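Re: [help] complex structure
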Amino acid sequence: MNILEFTILVAAGSFLAGLLGSLTGLGGGVVLVPLLSLFFKVDIRYAIGASLVSVIATSSGAASAYVREGFSNIRIGMFLEIATTVGALVGAFLAAFISTKALAMIFGVMLLYSAYLSRKPRPRAQRNLPPDPLATRLRMNGDFPSEEGGMRHYNVQRVPLGFSLMFGAGALSGLLGIGSGAVKVLAMDQAMKIPFKVSTTTSNFMIGVTAAASAGVYLSRGYVDPGLAMPVMLGVLAGSMLGARILVKAETKMLRLVFSIVIGVLGLQMLYKGLTGGI
Amino acid sequence: MSTTRNWTDKTIEEIVGTLLRVGVTLSAVVVSIGGAIYLARHGREPANYGVFHGEPSDLRILSGIVREAFRLRGRGIIQLGLLLLIATPVARVAFSIWGFAEEHDRLYMIFTGIVLIVLLYSLLGSGSAF
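Output below.
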């Protein structure tokens, strides 16, 4: 295969990953590394470098639309970014000392967990929780436009737990080159009891900053190959922009099921390849 | 008080949105130009990403990337576009410090400053990318 054919195929695959990721809300980043390393036989370190760069592109592209709608909470995002960026730096440094086999296995476990999370029903959101002293001191409580119309107030809970989980999300992002949006949403929505819509948009807002923290390390270490990152970044960006456009009317329940099965299967394959040393 | 605050909040969000869009668009354009040059010159060579050898230092550090880009090397131009992309969230964080200063929110100026220091450390200090 020559470089031109390779570039076209990788761009097409990345486009599809970006499209499905944004339509299902599961993120395209998680399938990029398995796609590149399992099907295109790219070394996992190059795959992670390219994926990380594309994560910045999709997050910044989507966040530019979300900040205007008034859902994302800039204070919560900025405070938690302290944890995610430090975590991302730690993850990126760790990546240099971990064998590619171990990386593949960690990736596999993460994919299986993501597939499980996406099928698990979300517990009903509790409303009207009492204000938490620390969250109040940090001025995190906010309002957002509710479905019923008007603004709804929310009080943020368990800040230390959320902060610790965010450190983990950052470390995963730096180690595996993903946005780890699922863990970020889990930390905000489940641990800190922030309304789901606010959690997802704030998470999107944070992903670009988190990924930028580890991208610098990857770039200077020579893990970002321009020939590979070019089709991946442009493909994912185009796919996720198209996805965001058709999302409003699309019926995504079935798509979400299919995509979570794909994620699960890729997880098993990564785990298998890691164990047998085929990566 | 509350109306001025809302006004500033909204203005900041508008500017942040524009900043992110411009950064991503600019980066995508630069990467596309570099990609076109790269493919025109090297498209027929065999692709081989299965063996990891790391990038040459000219594509890892800022001075090298800029030099390669100005020589109109495709890979150098792509890398310059990717640097612009990485710089976009960093610029957003830097801008947020100004935003919180406008709101006289000292606590969040400190938090944002910490995030900015971590980001700059990653870019400048970790592997001397610049």
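Chain B touches chain A through 69 residues (CB under 8 Å).
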